Amino acid sequence: MEQQFPMIQVMNNDGELVMTEYCEQITKELAMTFYRHLMRTRTFDRKCVSLQRQGRIGTYAPYEGQEAAQVGSALALKDDDWLFPTYRDHGATMTFGHSLTRILLYWRGRNEGCVPPNGKKIFPPSVPIATQLPHAAGAAYAEKRKGTKNAAIVYFGDGATSEGDFHEGLNIASVFQAPVVFFNQNNQYAISVPITKQMNSQTIAQKALAYDIPGVRVDGNDVFAVYFETQKALERARNGEGPTLIEAITWRYGAHTTADDPTKYRNQDESKKRRELADPIQRLERFMKREGFWDETWAQSVQEKVGREVEQAITEMENYPEAKSDDMFDYVFAQPTWTIEQQKNEYNAWKRGSIR
Ligand SMILES: Cc1ncc(C[n+]2csc(CCOP(=O)(O)OP(=O)(O)O)c2C)c(N)n1
Ligand SMILES: [Mg+2]
Q1: Would the CB of 259 count as within 6 Å of ligand 1?
Q2: Ligand 1 within 6 A of 87 CB?
Q3: Of 35, 38, 34, 59, whose CA–CA distance to 49 is shortest?
Q4: From atom 4 of ligand 1, which residue's Cα is the shortest distance away?
Q5: Nearest in space to 96 (alpha carbons), one of 61, 69, 60, 71
Q6: How do residues 67-79 score in pLDDT, each as one tens digit?
Q7: What residues are annotated to the active site?
Q8: DSSP letter assigned to residue 117
Q9: Residue 252 CA: which ligand 1 atom is closest?
Q10: Do 11 and 222 meet the contact criterion of CB atoms below 8 Å apart?
Q11: Which atom of ligand 1 is nearest to the CA of 160?
Q12: Which residues fall within 8 angstroms of residue 165, CB to CB, at 6 or more apart?
């Protein structure tokens, strides 16, 4: 199966182009755009981990190491497409145009964090594993029924492919030839469970065979491979050729969330080695240096600019108006059930001091 689904690489770990197909499209401007987004996502992610440690946001799910998979795929989208993320995909949502302040509000436990900027079709992060796949298939099918050229992308992890919703989503999308890209980030772990203990399949891409849709395996740390292969899959979707399953092979360096301790289940040297060998940002930097696209002053200015942008979002998040406690009751259902009404009344009575 690994031979039938070879891992597509455009740029190897040393930053050399190893596939000629896309050479002409890989310009200095494109490389600079990718680098800016990669640095922006990494800066944001690291800052969030430290905000959690300082008690300024709640539990946080870091994606460091997976930036190329998220940035490359999100940049392949068009403005009117749909994006269905998990809790680990804010690197993709921010690249697609989500507001950093809103993403921070989400991690602070605020319902406002689930609201995308006007006109952006970004769903709230799905925490229940794989439930977003049927939603994405449905949204994509609705676009098809309306006769638009819009597509949907849905993100999920390796662990999610063991859920029923994964199979239901792929099946329904295949039956109705919905314009959706199933974008799997195979970071090789579902919390503490390594992929080898979770599935007997050699690849995730091969699971596409059962639904008779294309299955594509890419090096998820190669931003070019991810970008061009996602673009191809989206083009197929827009042209009425139905869904694609993409497996992007990657690795998270850190913890599953800030509530997890990865030293309990894996050797940290593995992450260190992968960082040295295959880090998505260093790899692009190596490529840019080889091609003569690299400029130290420019790289520094990128770092300063994204740093300022992140700091400003943090200030906005912290100065956001106080949360109204009624929100946690009012947004559960469109029409509250009597139990929720009762809980709300009891809570408000307790706040007023009339019950203890
Ligand atoms: C339906 C469901 N079952 C279990 C969980 C608990 N859980 C949270 S994250 C996770 C692992 C998911 O792994 P994967 O799909 O590989 O995504 P990753 O976290 O690696 O990005 C599990 C089992 C959940 N959130 N939802
Ligand atoms: Mg995983």
Answers
A1: no
A2: no
A3: 59
A4: 129
A5: 71
A6: 999 999 999 999 9
A7: 252, 256, 265
A8: S
A9: 20
A10: yes
A11: 15
A12: 129, 130, 131, 133, 134
Any atom of ligand 1 within 6 Å of the Cβ of 133: no
Q: Using the mean position of ligand 1's atoms as its centre, give its distance from the Cα of residue 167 in Å.
A: 16
- The residues, ordered by sequence, that sit 6+ positions from 51 with a Cβ below 8 Å of its Cβ are 57, 60, 104, 107, 314
| Token reading at 55 | 């008690």
Q: Which atom of ligand 1 is the closest one to the Cα of 66?
A: 21
Q: How confident is the model at residue 61 (pLDDT cuts 50, 70, 90)?
A: very high
Please give the distance, rounded to the nearest whole angstrom, from the Cα atom of residue 160 to the centre of ligand 1: 7
Alpha carbon dihedral 307, 312, 314, 316, in 10-degree steps, equals -170
Average pLDDT over residues 109-133: 97
Phi-psi region of 177 (alpha: psi -120 to 50; beta: other; left: phi over 0): left
- Side chain identity at 193, as an amino acid letter? V
Quick check: 13 and 224 in contact, CB under 8 A? no
State the average pLDDT over residues 180-202: 98
Give the number of other Cβ atoms within 10 Å of residue 295's Cβ: 12
Residue 89, ligand 1, Cβ within 6 A: no
β-pair partners for 30? none
